[in-house]
Known about the structure:
The protein has helices at residues 21-33, 91-100, 113-121, 152-162, 182-204, 225-237, 248-251; strands at 43-47, 54-57, 71-74, 80-82, 106-110, 141-142, 167-170, 174-179.
Amino acid sequence: MVAIDELSSTGMTAQDTRLPTGDIVTGCHVLGSADHGDPVWGHISRRDPGGRGIWLKAGGRGFDEVAEDDIILIDSEGSPLAGSLSPPFEYPLHTEILRARTDVGSVVHCHPPCAIALAASGQSLHAFSNSAGMFATGVPRFERAVGLINTAELGAAVAECLGSSRALFLVGHGIVTVGSSVATAVMNAVLLERACRLQILATAAGGVAVAMQQPGRRYAHAESDAYLLRSWDYLVRQIPGRQGHDNGSRAAPSGGPSGD
């Protein structure tokens, strides 16, 4: 295992010289600001642009306090390649989704309260808002009674349940979202939680009207990455101490355990 700063010029093409650790840190801070922490569990991964493995938030830190030295590089079997920390117990969730989905560059796993509550209610998510527009085709539910996704077999089962979707309910646990970049995967998580919160409010007010449960193409505009990235820029600007909105996650497509 090597230090992360030793990798910056190792096996990299000219376009890959910037390591993705900063992208993951920014994504973690956005999730922390959006109340996705629980309190130190949850993680973001990103496929290494040089093909060397997967960059991943290690366990033990809340999203809002993550720094670059909390990000590690692991291989597909979870063995650390760079960084000083151990991978989280649930690294197979990330490795198996990235193995199955070549279109995905980043995976988010977190425990947002409204998404957990809505999934536990047994309701399907209804796309009746801009926040839910990208989930109009549905959000699959992984309902196996397991505590952690901590084996390759379970990770592969989650990847199979996710299919080609951009999000998944881990019922009784949390959510998984994916995207071509850290920015899009994080925004899918943020908007899924907002969509779940709106549905809980609508349910308390009498329920979602039948006419709003089948949106058709009403929210087609919300399906593009460009739509997501406008909100991403805003959320990055809200991180304490951040100046401006230029950040690597927006520009970069993705191509012993220490906790959940």
